[in-house]
Structures are given as structure tokens and as C-alpha cells.
Amino acid sequence: MFYIEEFINHLKMNQYSYSTLQxxxxxxxxxxAYLACNGIEDALNISKPTVLDYLKTLKGKTHPTKAxxxxxxxxIKYLHYLEEEGIIFLSPLRDYAMPKHQTKNYPVIGELEMxxxxxxTNTVDSLCIKGKAIIELAYSSxxxxxxxxxxxxxxxxxxxxxxxxxxxxxxxxxxxxxxxNAMAWIKKYIHEVRPRxxxxxxxxxxxxxxxxxxxxxxxxxxxxIQESLRRSGNEPxxxxxxxxxxxxxxxxxxxxxxxxxKLLGHSSIKTTRGYLHVDLKHLQQxxxxxxxxxxxxxxxxxxx
Length: 304
Description:
The protein is mainly alpha-helical.
């Protein structure tokens, strides 16, 4: 037996999404078929060389892709489950070093360029007001595009200036602050624009499609941002760049990386580091200005 369905049920109890469960099932069925072709009919007989040979069949490219790394992660979790349940003694991939895949590049917008966008975005029509509100919100609170289009009115505390982000990545909830300007534009959109397009819909999503009245999609968020910028004479930007830009600007302005990690909803600071794009020259200037050893040297020099 390979206990695949038992493992899937275990994931289901931990609130994994339907699409994620389907991905696990597909990968594990393929893994089981490979084992069967190699004469292995029981989880007890899975060996490290066989698993490593199977992983080689998945790669197919010079550089590891995200999909390839996800497949490996699913196999690792499955084998770990078998170990935890006492079905096998040790996972064959217990000490396996995960390959690194190249993450998507989301350019950081410079502070002067970001200030220009925030100051000079056209807000003469309803689409641009929506775009302006989304830009201000995503930049203020370092939100993912999904967190923007999933945001509901009851999850905004206008008095305290905070958002409740519900079931975001990995089903995690978190509370994030929102700047005054961003909150003002959200209010403007909700009171002046949204009622014109919600029609007879009863949902409480903040940002809606102006044709259907339904919740925005990720493409709707992108369109609102890029079309608003185009009408304002600005270059288009990727929605996710606003999240990366917000995190990087906070770091450059002195915010502790621990707090930035908390804002982003990361479980590990290592993940946060991958978001932060700091120019080497700027980093050198910051070290000269803020490193305690530099301050000590200045203090000693002044005493001489």
C-alpha cells in the first residue's frame, strides 16, 4: 500500500485548497506508477536511489523551474507523512537539498517615481479613482494582488486604520495597517464609485468590475492600475511590484526587517529577504551612516 488517499485526507484536514489537493494527487499517482514500473508495490520498499532516479525524470530543463520544485516538495511532504505515521522508518528524502528556482522579477519602483505616480495619477473618471485607490492601498500595506481583490468592506476598520486579511497565502489571516491617504481613496471609491456599478449584487467585495458588478479578478486589478497610469501619462507597472516596492522602501527608510516580514505575512525572514532589492551603493551609504562600528570610530576620533 502507498497510503496516498490517507495522505490527501490529512492535507484536507489541514485546509489545503481543492486545486492543491488535486496537484498532490496527480504527482503522487505518477510517482506510484513509476514505482510500480520498477517492481515496487509497497511504501515500505521505497528506496532513496529509486526516488532520486524518479526526480531526475521530472526535471527536463537546464534550470529548475517552480513547477519542478513544487513537485519535489510534494514528494518530500508525502514521504515525511509516511515517516510521521510510522509507515516507513525514515524518509528517503529526509536530508535532500532542495534546488533553487529563479523567482519572477518584479521591479522595484524608485521613491521619486513612486511619488510621481501617487501625486499625479489622473482621477477624473471612475476607473482612475478605482486604480488610484488600488495603487495607494497596495503600496501602503504591501498587499498581494489577490489580497486586493479579495478585500471585503466588513474587513476594513476605518476608525483604527487597519485591514483584516482573510485566508491569504497558505490560508493565513493577518491584520495590517493602512495609511491615511490610502484609506481616504478607499472611502472615496466605496462611496462615490462603487454604488454606481454594484447593481443588484449583494456581495461585500470592495473592488468590483464596472461592467458586471462582480468582484475584480487579478486581471481586473492589473487593468485598473495600468489603464489609470496610461491615462495619466505614466509607464505601466506590475501590480506585484507595488508590494515589493513597499517592502524595499520601508527597509531603506529604516524599518526593521522583522516588522516588514510581519507586514508581508511571511513565516520566515528568509522569504522576506528575497523581496528586498537594495542598490549596493545605497547599502554602502546606509552602512557608513548607521553601522555602530562607524559611529564608534567617529566618537574615538573626536576624543583624540
